Amino acid sequence: MLRVACGQERDRLEESIGDLFSHDGLAASYPHEPALTRAQALAVLAEVIAEHDRVVPDFSPDARAVLQSFGTLRARGVPVSFADGWDKREAAIAGHELALRVRGALGYAYLTEQDLETVVLTGVLRLGYSDMTGAAEPMVAVGRIVADSLAQAGLPVAWDGTAGRRIAVGPIVFERPFEYF
Fold it and tell me: Could you tell me the pTM of the whole model?
């Protein structure tokens, strides 16, 4: 359910289910669950997605504010890499590559797949950021732009102004329909 709530692509979800069957990992991973066929497991996935969309038919106000602030950040020269990496290293590389494609980018912000899972589970979103050089002073300026944009969107922001220290947004409710992705 968490992967559905985070909006992992349907193809990736189905591939994960297929991997469990190809390596006989389903029984090992879920020994107390009844044995399922691949078709049954995919049907359960479809039921989970349908139930998620029934419970979450639209974006929560906080999710809408976060995503709108990301649009504002891009317009201000700080594009956001959204869950384009499992960890901070992968997401920062994706953010840097994204910023290289944006004319006049001052830097970038990023969140990891783990950050997306954390905001869904705990209501706290953590964002990393950098300028294009990695130097402390311009990095702080990019962090300030990120924190200000989030706060202007009406979100609770906590950041101590230290270069490299991640920006926390929360508590928030981050919900969006699966089929949006």
Answer: 0.86
